[in-house]
Batch of 2 targets.
Target 1
Amino acid sequence: MEPLVSLTLRHNQSVFLPGDELDCEYQIDAIGERQIQSIENSVMWYTVGKGDEDLGVHHFERRVANDFPDMDLRELHRFNTTCPASPLSYEGEIVKIRWCIRVRVFRKSGKEILFELPFQIGRVPARGAAAATSPERSTKNVR
Amino acid sequence: LPSWIKLLHKKRGDRSTVSRIAGSLGEALLAAALVQTGAVLAVWLIADTIATVSRNEPITGLWAVVVALVAAAACSTIGTWRLLKLMLQSSTTAERRSAFVGQARALERKLRAPGAGQLPQVPDPKEFGPVKGRHFPYRLPTSGRDAVRVLYWGLSSLLLSMVTSAVFAVTLNHWILSLGKIALLVASLLLVVLVGLSIWWFIKQLLAWFQCGPTSIELSQFPLMPGEKIQVFLSQTGRMRLRKLVFTLECVEFAVYQQGTDARREAKVVEEIPIMTEDRIDISPRRPWEQVCELQVPAAGMHSFVASSNAIQWRLVLRAKGVNCPSLSRETPVVVYPSSPPSSSKVQV
C-alpha cells in the first residue's frame, strides 16, 4: 500500500507575492514507523512547454531517519521560507514557469514516492493561447 | 574635380577625397573581388591538375601550380578578412564593439557563477553593455540581420563562381568527352549568366549594407520596471529613403529542445507593444533621423527570464520598409525587472 501524504500550505493560500512568508506542513500516514529512510522537501520552480525542462530549487531540506532518536519521520513537520523576487509564475505560449512544494519520500525498500503541491508567485496574466486554454490551478496535486 | 573622377578613397590628413561610405564601399568591392579571384583561380588549378592526371599525362610545372595555389589561398584569406572587418566597422559603433567584448566577459563570469545575484534567473543588465548616451543616461547596442543577407549572397556567388571555374577547366581540357563539348559549353554559359546575376545581387546587398548606417537607441531608465513610463531617443543614420518605420517593444519566448541528436530552438513573439510609427523618412549622412518617444512598460508584464533551455526576452525592435533599398530590421534586448526589484536596481554606466 502506498503511503498517504497530507501536504498543506497554511492559511490555504495559493498565490504569494515576492517577499511573502510561505508556511507549509506535511504528515505521512499509512506506512510503518520504521519504513521511511529519508524525506526531502523542497520549494522549487520548473519550466513546462516546448523547451527542455529547467528547474531551480529555492529551499531544500533533507531529513534522515537515523538522525532522529525514534527513527520516525511520519510526524507533522513544518517548514517556512520567504518567496523570492524571481522568477514569477508564468503561463506563456511555449514557456511556462511553475512553482511547487515537492516532498520525496524514500522508503527502506528502495521505493521512492513523490508528492507535489503547486502554488503561484506573483500575478502575471497568461499570454496568448495559454490564456485561453490554461486550466484552473488545483490547490493540491498528489502524484 | 567632378565627383565621378574621385573613385578612390584617399585620405589627406583629416580630409578625404570621397565620402566615407563611398570609400568603404570601394574597399569592400576590392576585397570581394580578391576573394572571388582567389577562389576561382584555386578551383581552376585543382580541376586542371585532376584533368591532367586522369589523362595519365605528366604534370608540367608542379611548383608553379603550388605557388599559384598558395597565392590564390592568400588572396581569398586576405579578401575575406578585409571584407568582414569592413562590414563590422561600418555596421557597428565603437560602443557596440566594446559591448561585444563586455558581453563575452559577462558570459564568462556567468558560467563561473551561475545564479548569482539578487534576482535569480533575471539577466544582469550590465551584460547588455549599456554605455552613457548623448540624450539619455543609457545607450544600448543594436543588432540586425543585414549582415546575414550580405554574407549569404557573398557566399552563394563565391560557390557558384567556383563551380563555374571547375566546369570551364573541364570544358577546356575535353575531360569528359562522353558528355559532348556542346553540352558542356551550354552548361558553362548558363553558369556564367548565373554567376553574373549572383555577383550583381551581392553588390546590391553590399551597397544597401553601406547605405544603412547604425541605429542608436537611448533610454532614460535601464533596466525597465513594469508600469513605468520612460523616454526613448531613437536615431538612424545612413543614406536612404524609408516608406514606413515602426518601433515596438516585443516580448519573445525562447525554447531550446532536443530532437534526436539535434538541438532545436524556437522563438515566439507573445506580446508586441507599439511605441511609434512614422511614414516617409529621408535620411542623409548629414541629417540623421532622430526622434524622442515615450514608452509605457506594461504593468502586468512578465519580467525577463533566462535559464539553460528557456528564456523570456524583451527587446526594442525597429523595422522599416525602404524605397529602392532593402528593408531595415534592428533590435536591442532590454531587461524588464519584476515589479518588486531589489533596492539597488539602477545600472551605473
Target 2
Amino acid sequence: MTAPLQFELTLNGARCEGEIDSRSLLVDAVRTLGATGARIGCRTGDCGACTIVVDGRLTKSCLVLAASAAGSTVFTIEGSTDPVTTTLQQTFIDHKGFQCGFCTSGMILTAAQALRDKPDLTDDDIRRALSGNLCRCTGYDDIVRAVRAAADRLLEKRGNTAAKA
Amino acid sequence: VIARHFAYETPRDLGAATAILAAGGAGVAVLGGGTWLVPNMSLGASAPDVVLDTRHLGLQSIEESPDELLIGARVTYEQIKASALVRRHAPLLALMANKITGGLQITGQGTLGGSACYANPSSDVPACLAVLGARLQLASSMGQRDVPAAEFFTAAFVTARRADELLTSIVIPKCASPRAGYYKLKFSTGSWPIVTAACLPLSDGEKPGLRIGIGGACVTPVVFSVDMAAQEAASVEASVAAAATQSIVDEWSDEFAGPGYRRAVAGAIAVRALRACQGAAR
C-alpha cells in the first residue's frame, strides 16, 4: 500500500489541504476539489482538455502527479477571471468556437497564455499555440476566428488606453 | 489515478537522489517533465516501485564556460527557445526546439534531458545531441562520469545510463559557425517525425566539410561527415544523399512507416537539411 501524502496547494485563490493518494494525477486532484473545468480526455497528454495553469505555467495536468504540484498555485478555468480570459470566453461565444464544449476550457486557457506571450499574434501563431489541444467538433476554423477576434479586441482596448494616456 | 502503487520521493539534493537510485536500482523511475513517465504509468506500460521526482534538484539552468554550454537536465524546450546563449552557441538546438510538436504545454513541460534518457528513436533530441558532439553528465553515489552522445544511445529506448545514475546536465561544445540546418519529415502537423536530419558545417579549420546527423531512421542516431573540398554543389548533395542512405543500417520501423521506408527517404531529408544549412546565415 502507498502511504497517503500530506498535500496542500492554492486552487483558484483558495488554500486547499489534506491527504492524497500518491498515485493521483493533478487533474484527478483538482476535479476532486471541485474544479471540474479541467477535463479528462485522454490521459496521454495528447488532447489538452485537462490544461490548467500551475505556478504561471500552462500545464497538461494529466501529465503531472498531484504530489509534484504540492505547494503550487493552480488556476483552472473557474478561477481565471482576468480580462484576457473573459474576452476569449465572449469571442468563443460570438464566433461559435465550440460545439460540445469538452475542449473549450483547455482551448481558452491555452489561447490566453498565447495572447499574453504575444498580444499581436498571427493566425499561424494561433494554430501553433493550440496544436496541443484537440477539438473533434469544430474543425478549428471557428476557434481560430474566436482567438483572432479576442486578440483584435484586446489590442484595440490597449490602443484606446494608450491614446487616453 | 494510476493503478499500481509506488513510493514517491522528492530528494532535496543530489546526494539524497543518488542514494535513492543506489538503493532502488532499476525499480526507480526518474521523473523530469513527466510527459513520458506519467502517461506510461497511467497506461500501465511503466510500473516503477519508486518515483524519484527531481523537482527540488534545480538542474534548470543554461550556463556557459569559455568553450561549452551547460544545459541542466530539467531545462524545457521553452527555455531552450528563449535562451540567447543557445541561439548564439548552439543554433541547431534552437531550431530543433522551435519545431517540437504538442503545443505550448508540451514544450513547457517536456525536457531535453528527459527526452535523451527516454531515447525514443522517433524523438528529435538524440540525433541533435549526437551531431553536436554533446556529452551527458551522469551522477551516482560512486561519482560522476561524462558519456558522449554517440555512445549514450545504445538501442531503442535504451541508453548507457546505469540504473543507479541520474542525468544532471548536457554539455554542448560551442559551435563556431552560426549556420545550422534542420529538417524533419512528418505526415501531419502534430505527428512524430518520421526522419530528422541536422546539418552543421565542420569546425576543424581549413578543410571544408559537413557533419550530418540522422534521427528517427535507425534505432539510434547516426552521424557522418562529408568532405566538401573540390566538389561541385550538385555532387555535394549527391554525396550527402548517398552517405545518408548508407548510414541506415539498423532501420527503425513502426506503424507510421514500415520497413524500408525510412531508408528510402533518408537521403532526400538529409539534402533538405543541407540546403537549409547553406541558406541559413544569421
